[in-house]
What we know:
Blueprint: H1 4-13, H2 25-31, E1 34-37, E2 45-52, H3 61-70, H4 72-79, E3 89-93, E4 99-106, H5 117-134, E5 139-142, H6 154-172, E6 177-182, H7 185-199
Parallel strand pairs: 1-6, 2-4, 2-5, 5-6
Antiparallel strand pairs: 3-4
Helix pairs in contact: 2-6, 5-6, 6-7
Ligand AR6 binds next to strand 2, helix 3 and strand 6.
Organism: Chondrus crispus
Protein name: Macro domain-containing protein
Amino acid sequence: NVPDWYLSEIKKQRRSRRISPDDPRRQEFLENLLVVKGNITKIVADAVVNAAKSSLLGGGGVDGAVHRAAGPELLQECRKLNGCPVGDARITNAYKLQARYVIHTVGPVWGGGKHEEDFLLRECYMSSLELAKNHDCRTIVFPAISCGVYSFPFARATGIAIDAVLDFKAEHGDHMQVSFCCFSERDKNIYLSEMQKRKGQD
Ligand code: AR6
């Protein structure tokens, strides 16, 4: 449950444009997206995104795996951040991960779709990409934010993730290699089919 004042504030600040379906760059951006199957903590990238909770103090799923793999110093640094609102992101060192940074973002809990879940999930991707860009990251890997404990429907979430990345690249340029990491072949195929649908739009 995100307060209304917070929602209207981030909506005002961030009216990120959407790339037109006819924009020729769309195909190119789609070709440059990668989907990998595996454990996100094993991936080498400038920034690894963590599907965190608002306290930023660790939990299960990706969050638990990231904290275990990075080591206890990650939690020490997270304690200093005083949490993070839903849809926003924070950056820390990555310690023992094969990455320069961990970007912690807090996805919305799925509550049926009428509580701004889509908008907030998009914000997670936008905030994370913006932080990565401001820290000169060339490669970033995302887990399927909100798709585990937070129960966001998978295909809907992957569509939002892909569109957010395309829109970000349309606005800021294609300077970052963006990958999506998921655990199963089934999940990987959902990403690929959402990408395919978008390729078909041109
Ligand atoms: N590598 C890649 N994907 C993973 C991994 C991994 N190591 N572990 C899980 N997934 P979740 P959420 C997939 O629950 O829904 C935590 O307790 C998983 O199959 O990690 O945003 C936090 O502290 C699913 O598709 O994140 C929060 O309280 C996706 O990653 C809460 O869970 C996300 O699942 C956040 O829930």
